[in-house]
């Protein structure tokens, strides 16, 4: 594999992790939302990664193939005085688990950092190779 392909592979992974971070941010922002007028609360979303052949199939990157909604039930809280309460007095909140989202955010952030570090290391190696040729 060419040294320049490293930038394609790490760049695709960093881009995918950026999308993952955006989905996590949306989930965290909607963690305490209640069901809307349609009776449906916000559902947590998660990214699904897929291998991506690059160039002459000598290297493989990654891309986000889809963003899927969680099928878990939302949290129900008995609060008959709330405007969003149903006939039984329960308010349906989103099914987002903030702790899981924070773990996912840390994982995505670390993956992004690792890919940036790979690109920086490859850049340094290429610069050193050029400097060898100048001597």
From TrEMBL:
Keywords: Bacterial flagellum, Cell projection, Cilium, Flagellum. Coiled coil: none annotated. InterPro entries: Flag_bb_rod_N, Flagellar_basal_body_rod_CS, Flg_bb/hook_C_dom, FlgC. Pfam families: Flg_bb_rod, Flg_bbr_C. GO terms for biological process: bacterial-type flagellum-dependent swarming motility. The keyword Chaperone does not apply. Residues 8-34 form the Flagellar basal body rod protein N-terminal domain. Residues 87-132 form the Flagellar basal-body/hook protein C-terminal domain. It is found in: Bacterial flagellum basal body. It comes from the Bacteria. One of its GO terms (cellular component) is bacterial-type flagellum basal body, rod. Belongs to the flagella basal body rod proteins family. The basal body constitutes a major portion of the flagellar organelle and consists of four rings (L,P,S, and M) mounted on a central rod. The rod consists of about 26 subunits of FlgG in the distal portion, and FlgB, FlgC and FlgF are thought to build up the proximal portion of the rod with about 6 subunits each. This is Flagellar basal-body rod protein FlgC. It comes from Pseudaquabacterium pictum.
